[in-house]
Design goal:
The chain is α/β, with parallel strands linked by helices. It has eleven helices and 18 strands. Helix 4 crosses helix 5, helix 4 packs across helix 10 and helix 7 crosses helix 8. This is Alcohol dehydrogenase.
Length: 357
């Protein structure tokens, strides 16, 4: 089969013939129809993000495709079924703290690297092999819309954070990093889950105006200035801020994370999902007395639980999460370089770059 291969960090991906995956028990072989390209994918492939990725590798985290073949343990999936390929692969020999690899992108620790030995190759290929539990039934879709359905992989990241926060309908959410790729998706997901209001901070006035235009009065935008940002974030909300979700990238400082976190109400919840500090810089400092006396919960969340896939699909199927928010730019596998350039071009809010092998 044809695939795009990363042979060495800092070198362009090469599109060539590679051996097709060999199906085993507990696995599903999927014909890839559409695979999303992250805005920072080129940074990963240049080695700038220091992601744990064993080379050579076929990159590509997640895809929309059709089942080609299932292992003998599959009871419901059938060849031809449309599926979401979840790239979050967990080891099966420790239910409490499974090792995790993000297929075609990264891994957590030595155990995650061990998983990459078998499930390392991702979706920039004509076929991808995934564990049976990672092939999530989509139901029938229009093949022409497969690229738009890759938005699910993007939305699953903030969805995992909001599930970790225990977001309840009617609550107010502050999305730190709301003008970015994952953050803007987080605004849409929070509203789809029933948030009464989303406070959306940022420095890009055009991006903030775009959020106002898209979502109206349920979103309260705030331009960050570095001066009493916490106070202005609190004032923008119609009432107490119940949940803060941080999705800022590695390039951001800890100052806006701290300003957002400290806007949460007494007994509020703060979930950290971004990349701040991953490339160095100061650590996040939150006042011990403030945390303790206000009974604030702060937790980290990497990605999403496996069960989130099904409910995320249901949000999209119901129309609560409108996938038409997203524009789609599609590229053939032979133009993987063009896809990477387009994804990194700067327009990341509600914009999908997709490879169609």
């Amino acid at each position: 089969m044809r695939a795009a291969v990363l042979e060495e960090f800092g070198k362009p991906l090469s599109v060539r013939e590679v051996p097709a995956p060999v199906l085993g028990t507990g696995e599903v072989l999927v014909d890839v129809v559409a695979a999303g390209v992250l805005p920072y994918a080129a940074e990963v492939f240049r080695g700038e993000r220091n992601y744990a990725l064993t080379l050579p590798v076929v990159p590509g985290a997640g895809a929309i495709g059709r089942v080609r073949e299932t292992g003998p343990d599959a009871t419901r999936l059938r060849p031809g079924d449309w599926v979401l390929c979840d790239p979050v692969i967990r080891s099966r020999d420790d239910a409490l703290t499974p090792d995790i690899t993000l297929q075609g992108l990264s891994a957590r620790g030595d155990g995650g690297l061990l998983l990459q030995r078998h499930f390392g190759h991702g979706a920039y290929a004509e076929q991808v092999l995934v564990p049976t539990e990672n092939a999530i039934p989509l139901g029938p879709i229009d093949p022409a819309d497969a690229g738009r359905w890759t938005a699910l992989a993007l939305c699953l990241v903030p969805y995992g954070g909001l599930l970790a926060a225990g977001l309840r309908p009617g609550e107010t959410v502050l999305v730190s990093g709301a003008t970015g790729n994952f953050g803007s998706a987080g605004v849409a997901v929070a509203l789809a889950m029933g948030a009464a209001c989303v406070v959306a901070p940022g420095r890009d006035e055009a991006a903030l105006a775009d959020l106002d235009r898209r979502f109206g009065s349920r979103v309260r935008t705030v331009r960050l200035t570095g001066e009493d940002d916490t106070g202005r974030l609190r004032d923008a909300a119609p009432g107490p801020v119940d949940v803060v979700l941080d999705l800022l990238p590695p390039s951001a400082s800890t100052a806006p994370v701290r300003a957002a976190a400290m806007a949460v109400r007494e007994r509020g919840r703060v979930v950290l999902m971004g990349g701040v500090g991953m490339l160095g810089g100061e650590d996040l400092a939150l006042p011990y007395p403030w945390l303790m006396r206000n009974s604030v919960t702060v937790r980290g969340q990497w990605l999403h639980p496996r069960t989130a896939n099904t409910s995320m699909i249901a949000l999209a199927r119901s129309g609560l999460l409108d996938l038409d928010l997203f524009t789609v730019a599609e590229f053939g596998l032979d133009d993987i370089a063009g896809a990477l350039d387009h994804a990194a071009s700067g327009r990341t809010r509600f914009a999908l770059t997709v490879v169609r092998p």
